[in-house]
Amino acid sequence: MGQLKQKQTGVVLFIALIALVVLTLAGIAMVHSTTTANLIAENRAYDLATVQVSDTGVESAIVLLTSTILAHPDTAIANTYFPLSQALQPDGTPVANWSAIPTATIQGYGVQYVIERMCTGTPLPIPVTSLSTYCMTLNNTAASSNGSKLAGQVVLTSAPTFVYYRISVRATGPKNTTSIIRAMVVY
């Protein structure tokens, strides 16, 4: 028997090389996609951490407010407390020299805060002579109902006025992550 000789044209090799290139490109795309997803997750984790650290900054500001500022609310504390509300920058923080504001380091994140008493108006006397005229206030109407109606109980004759304070906290972390948290408190 004679053997038939067939010509080989190499089509299978060409198709195999094309399939190999397609699979290689798909693998590269999958690796790139996984890397991008990991970077997004990492950045989100940094962002959430700065928000959590900002809460600590709000708590620190409240401690300063209740322990020091409320005793002398008309006295400014350089780069920390303003007895008058400040203009706002485009990022929502008050116009202040943020490079001069003290920075606390909490778990590797930098935390700064500014406290403003929500008082405005022109001309504004310092000390503020009328909180209800120049400041955002909360009048305690429940207290103005003359107190308890029970015999022998204290009768309240005037409503106390509470003033709003705005706390702006800026926290910075790795990869230039920055979070700005603002809180309003009433004292």
Would you mind describing this structure in some detail?
With 187 residues, this protein is α+β, with helices and mostly antiparallel strands. The protein has one domain (11-186). The chain has 2 helices and 6 strands. It has helices at residues 11-67, 131-134; strands spanning 81-82, 104-106, 109-117, 137-139, 161-172, 178-186. Strands 1, 2, 3, 4, 5 and 6 form a 6-stranded mixed β-sheet that branches. β2 and β3 (109-117) form a beta hairpin. The longest helix is centred in the first third of the chain and has 57 residues, at 11-67. The termini are far apart. Residues 142-148 have low confidence and may be disordered.
Inertia-based shape: rod-shaped
The biggest sheet, with number of strands, parallel, antiparallel or mixed sense and barrel status, is: 6 strands, mixed
Structural class comes to: alpha+beta
Averaged pLDDT: 83
Rg (CA only) = 32 Å
Number of strands: 6
Helix content: 25-40%
Q: What order do the helices and strands follow?
A: HEEEHEEE
Strand content: 15-25%
For the record, give the distance between the C-alpha atoms at the N and C termini, rounded to a whole number.
109 Å
Please work out how many helical segments DSSP would assign.
2
Low-confidence stretches: 142-148
Total domain units: 1
